[in-house]
Amino acid sequence: MSESLSFFKKVNQNFDYAAQFTDHPTGLLDQIKICNSSCHFTFPIKRDNGDIETLHGWRAEHSHHQLPTKGGIRYSTLVNEDEIMALAALMTYKCALVDIPFGGAKGGIQLDRNEYSDTELERITRRYTYELIQKNYIGPGIDVPAPDFGTGEDEMAWIFDTYITMSPDKLDAIACVTGKPINQNGIEGRKEATGRGVAFGLEEVCNYADDMKNIGLETGIQGKTVAIQGFGNVGYHAAKFLFEKDAIVVGISEIDGVVYNPKGIDIDKLSDYSKENATIRNFPDAIYIENPNEGLELECDILIPAALENQITEENAPRIKARIIGEAANGPTTFKAHSILKEKGALIIPDTYLNAGGVTVSYFEWLRNLSHVRFGRIGKRFEETTYNAMLRAVENATGYQFTDTERMIVHGADETDLVNSGLQDTMINAYQEIREIQLQYGIPEVDCRAAAFINAIDKIAHSYLQLGIFP
Ligand code: NAD
Fold this sequence. Notes:
This protein is an alpha/beta fold. The chain has two domains: 1-34 and 187-376 and 413-471, Rossmann fold (3-Layer(aba) Sandwich); 36-184, Leucine Dehydrogenase, chain A, domain 1 (Rossmann fold). It has 16 helices and twelve strands. The chain has a seven-stranded mixed β-sheet, with helices on both faces. Helix 8 links the parallel strand 6 and strand 7. Residues 72, 147-150, 194, 229-235, 253-255, 292, 306-308, 328-330, 355, 358 line the site of nicotinamide-adenine-dinucleotide.
């Protein structure tokens, strides 16, 4: 089948491949696969110099089997309806896989954010939000956006402020968007969540001795060499947390080239350098490679595409040396490239699983917003007092005096602890489910991606059947 298929059709190729291993009726599979609704709108904005410009925006709600729908908002020149529907579909499968009770959605505006000032971006984001409100494509129980490629906390704060201004009497309005800054009803750890989830996921993958042996690697994340494409939110945080887990990040590629050091790159130093110079080019502690595409072909154990879709294709897949492909970006590997890599014996950890950390912590933020209380606020002090009393009782009974380090166990869980442990638990459980499905089928055809899709399809089918929507 051709590589020139649209992105949505490519997502559906993976769906169809996995669906053949299930026994759900064709009509139900069609309903799961189809995009339930999508909306294209154009709107004008006034540039700082007074010019009027027309922009194109989209929002797609792929599946209403659970509400609200949930998915990021992307600012990129490549945004179009097909891309948004494909990304919304991936969100549906991702949420199902990690047991998050949302349908999938995605939105975007076709623009290059570097061509607009901050005040223009604010006007654009507010106007886009207004369009979503008008069309009923946003709301805490309807559809809840989040950051994606080209957007971050600032855009989420503008969306939040616009929505809340237009619905002042709605108690739950603060849950209309996630990925907000902490001081604007955001949650600790959301900004880092997707990258941290990638690190937790890959750590879990590398802990299975048999799987590692099959691909010629040692067990454990420590010492694994890693190359990452994209040094934005997801790429930077994945690099940072893998570095903290003693993996060796040997290469980072950005749009203007690659930095490579086989002994390892200091991630925080590179981040400071790229903020200061607005490029990673000529970072002093590494070799610089002009062609960004070469970043995918570096000698390494783990390759993490963390930029955009369709980066690993049938053209470059034969030259990829990594034994593990960890899909932090959405849809980075084409269907044909997947087959080539699999043929070469690589282990491909799919996007629907590996980048689910973002939506997981978004879910926690949404819950926090609906409950109007910070996680840990009510129980933390009580836990600490109880644990302290227990330690004192042990000290009195035994005469033993706990050291300050040992006393750390009395620390009650705060929001950061709870968010991170909830995220880790989610990533571990979801991978175990995927592995169990692979073991259950016991055939090479059901690889990690197919198993992830089978799991998601089964859960969504179950949810539809429980709803009793088929009279
Ligand atoms: P971002 O805008 O913060 O960063 C993307 C980075 O990739 C930018 O620095 C950009 O310059 C770089 N880039 C673009 N094209 C490149 C290329 N050809 N080679 C090398 N670098 C390139 O975006 P992000 O939020 O980090 O998202 C990255 C990917 O992760 C997207 O596919 C997105 O859908 C996915 N994702 C993001 C989140 C999230 O929470 N932000 C959650 C799940 C999935």
